[in-house]
Every structure is written in structure tokens, then in C-alpha cells.
């Protein structure tokens, strides 16, 4: 038996944009067990229902995460719309789908950059983030904001995108697609990148289910589940396949996310072709009374929203289970048996968002 | 077990572990556990959500304020964080959690649990 030691990892670590702590039980360089702990940035957003009314909670939901801000606001609005029996205009559904897919694009490009940074490939990191910047520009042109752009409201959206603007976005995305293909080719084909990812951090399909993994983490283990297939917003009208991989390793997670980048571009194209003209919101009157559970597919995976209202303007319960919260147990599984040097990369492969996790 | 909504069933404490074992054996994924304390009812409602493919089902357990609820963390490891969170933020007594963090999941100075003010 080799030397055993416990090594703390995080909460401050070069590879971690946000704080999570792991106690790594090592035997020489091999990780025997990892004990995660969170709690450094809990903001108590769920308990703000005491102070903020159900309309103001849209803005609270959007601030859960900076990357998937739009989809948090959208999921919250969808829950309230179900409770209040509000039918959202189809144009608003399409606009929500377009902004959701743009969020997925920029999130996955951001993740690719962080991954490249994680294994020291700085130029690849810069290329990924340069591409991401163009998506943020599109957010700015269409909404005025680059990160949290607050266009959701209960009953629809606050801003429209003119059809000319949408067609221009598709032209830009067509141009970007080639650049993204060139950049992602390096992630998929480069020897040095593959040497860090292939066969590292195996998570079998059964383990992914037992550990409650979601999103690309689960799909890279061969599980064919994507909440968008439930057909919320405009997804029911669109033609797309769930992207999976059976390799179950870090490379497979990278492969799935890269596949989803091109899928998002295709979904946006389909939306722009099919988007109907018309209203972008429905007037909502009265107070919500009842409860609803909503699941949406965010870039990091399935997010669960539960809202319970009591007929007053203050909600009884606003519950959010974010994808990273669900993926931490799967991370612990992938760390067991890994080499110490692979730990930072394995943490990155779940695409951790700790602000989301702790809310 | 009584159906109270589409895909939602109310279960007793005595039924909980049996239901959870059935879900585990059928390879259902634990989506989440949610604890709430509605002001009007003045009791805890614990909702366990499971998913298999695109199927989705939720089980609701009602617990009084001082009642103990069995942990499911020995069946589903991923329940550890959910149960520690429920105890820390909502004050729900969960019995026999596999890794009990003793209200130290979140490193916050604010007094917990966050029950409605008149109940604190």
C-alpha cells in the first residue's frame, strides 16, 4: 500500500472560476475518494419570496446564474404561466427558444475555453472566447444586455426581435459555424487534447442514473434524455436529435457539448424559418394560486423549478434544483480512481456553476 | 398511496422507503427532493421527484413540524445534499442521513431554518 494523504482542493484554485472544495483522499497519486463541500456563496435567493412579489421574482430567478440567466427566468415564468393558465403567444415561444439556444451556444463556447485553459492550451482558450463574444454581441443588439438581459415576463417576453435582425443573426451564425468547426476540430482531433481526455473520468450509464447526473454529463454516458424533447416553448415544432456518446469519458462529454453547439445553430435556423408573426405577450391578471413543477434543458442539463403560490402576491415556495447540484455526486464518482493531475479537468468536465448550485 | 395531481402521489412515511427501493430497482433517476412549509397548512411537504427516460413522477410526504422523516440517502447517494439542505434551511428532521453535515452545508452566518417568520 502506498502513502495515504488527504489533499484539499479548492475553494480557491486556478481552474475553478467559482468556489467548491474537495477533500481528496490519495494513495500516492491516485484518488481513492473525494469528499465535496459547498456553501461558500449561498445567497438565499429562494427565501426572497418573503420580500419580493411573484413578478419581482422573475428578476431574482434571472440572477441565479450569469450564464443561463435567460433560461432561469424562462423556467420561472413557465411555472407561473402553468399555475395561472396563461397561454403564451407562439412568437414569444419561438423568441424564447432562440434566446435559449443562443445561451447554450455561448455557455458551451465558454466551457470549451475553460477546458482549454484547464489543460494549458491558452490560444485555444482565446479562440473559444473570441467566438463566444460574437454571441454576446447578438444578445446586446437584441436586448441591450450582454449577460443578464431580462426579457422574460410572465405571459411572454418583453422585447421582440424584428425578422430582419433574426435573418442577420442567422447569416452571422452561418459564418461563425465554419470558425467554430475549425476550433472544435482541435478539441476532437488534437493529440495533446485527446491525451488528457480519452479514457479519463469514466461514468457508466448506470452510474449516471444512480448518481442523478443530468445534461451532457448523462448523455455522454449513453443516456438518451434531453428535456427539450418534452416540447416546451417551440421545441415541439423543431426537428433535432438528442446528441449522445457511449464512450462515457471526458472526451465524450466534450464531444456531446461540441455536437450541441452545431445543433443549437441549426435550431436557431429552424426557428427563424418558422417563427410566426404576432403578439409577444399575453396580459396576466390576478394572483397565482396553485403549484407547478417545470423541467427545462439548460446548457449544463436539466433544471427543475417548483413554484407554489397561495393566492397572494407572495409565493409560498420557490424551489430551484440546478444542473450542477445534480452533477456533483457524479463528479465524485468520476474522481474515484483518477490520477491527482486529472482532478482539475474532471471538475471542469461537469461544467460546474457553483453560483447556480447554491442559489 | 393516493394520487393528488397528474404524476404526483401522496405517500405515508411507512411507504416511503418501499417506494424509493422500487424506483431504485427499476433504475429511476432521483431528480430532486424539495421541502416546503406552506403558511396555510403549517406542516412540511417533502416532494421526491423521479425520472426514467421522459417519464416523470413525484411523491409527496406530509410531515408535522417536529416529526422525523427517514433518510433515503442509503438508497440514493445523491440524496445526501438534498437532505442536508432540507434540515439546514427548513429545519426538517431527517433521520439517519448517510453523511450528516450538521447544518454546515452552507457556510452562512444567518440563523436557519428559514421558516415563515411567525413560526421561528
- What order do the helices and strands of chain A follow? EEEHHHHEEHHHHHEEEHHH
CATH superfamily of chain A: Cytochrome-c3 Hydrogenase, chain B
Overall residue-averaged pLDDT value of chain B: 86
Main sheet properties of chain B: 5 strands, mixed
How much of the sequence of chain A is in beta strands?
A: 5-15%
- Just give the CATH class of chain A: Mainly Alpha
Shape of chain A: globular
Query: Roughly how many Å apart are the termini of chain A?
Result: 42 Å
Looking at CATH, the homologous superfamily of chain B is NADH:ubiquinone oxidoreductase Nqo5 subunit
Apparent shape of chain B: globular
Poorly predicted parts of chain B: none
Structural notes for this entry:
The complex is a heterodimer of chains A (359) and B (120). Chain A is of the alpha+beta class. Chain A has one domain (41-325): Cytochrome-c3 Hydrogenase, chain B (Orthogonal Bundle). Chain A has 12 helices and 8 strands. In chain A, the strands form 3 sheets. Chain A has a 3-stranded antiparallel sheet. With 120 residues, chain B is an alpha/beta fold. Chain B has a single domain (2-119), classed as 2-Layer Sandwich (Beta Polymerase, domain 2). Chain B has 2 helices and 7 strands. The interface between A and B is large, with 35 and 36 residues.
